[in-house]
Amino acid sequence: MSETRKAIITCAVTGSGHTPTMSPSLPFTVEEVVNESVAAAEAGASVIHLHARDPRDGRPTSDPAVFLEYLKPIKAATNAVVSITTGGGTGMTVEDRLRVIEVARPELCTLNLGTMNYGGFPMIDKYRGAWRFDWEEPYLESTRREPFVSTYADIEHMLRTVGPETGARFEYEAYDVGHLHTLAYYLDLGLVRPPIFLQTIMGVMGGIGADVDHLVHMKQTADRLLGDAYQWSVLGAGRHQFDMVAVAAVMGGHVRVGLEDGLYLSRGQLAPSNAEQVRKVRRILQELSIEVATPEETRAVLGLKGLDKVGF
Fold this sequence. Notes:
The chain contains 11 helices and 14 strands. It has helices at residues 30-43, 64-77, 94-104, 124-127, 136-142, 152-166, 177-189, 212-226, 241-250, 274-287, 295-302, and strands spanning 6-7, 9-12, 47-50, 52-53, 60-61, 81-84, 108-112, 169-174, 196-202, 230-236, 254-257, 264-266, 269-270, 291-292.
């Protein structure tokens, strides 16, 4: 990984894994998602990572019209980079997940590096009988039998078609070591263009565990396979969120927080907002004498096309 002087903070404001019952702070109306995104950017996040939710009940949606309701006011209020999910939510087809990229033509979008079991069902027991909406338990239960699908053909379609046709670059999401080898394969073929923005996900059920030795192994493997072609970012799922990003920061990486990844600010304390999580990680960085990258510095580091070239 090439040396960087400043850390990029990404904030993933809502996601698709958590459900409204789990936290009153999880945004799902248009106003909430926009306000949370703007506040996170003002707190220091230079990248806002977006999923979409039905504003009536918070269920994940792939509707480009909902994304556009977020994107336009976020762009009007901030100069943050917006990274749009292509992972969507359980049960969505690849075609569903990619529609928004074709319409919005963002600077950045995710590219998941493999098919995997993404298990949300263990959360059911904690909330059973207290659901706010009737879709929540069946949705979580569906992750027991439905994998997240990203085939080699899907990856190649994104590299050969989606990226070139929209100008979007990718936030490559690696949930395990094998995903790094897949990324290296396409780098060697010339389909992946540096600088690579590699997001290492630690602690999701079905992926690599949130342990420091695993994190070190992921970085050492990426160094060996990718050399200086990549920028490394880390997120920790659930209770591992701040442990993992603190270790990553010490190791020279970028960091990601947000209510998509973890609902808490500290042990037993639900985060009141995404911005509070951003402020906490920014304090951690400052205590380590690490400066925070601005949106324009982030665009330069990641080789992005610029906010004036998006489709929203």
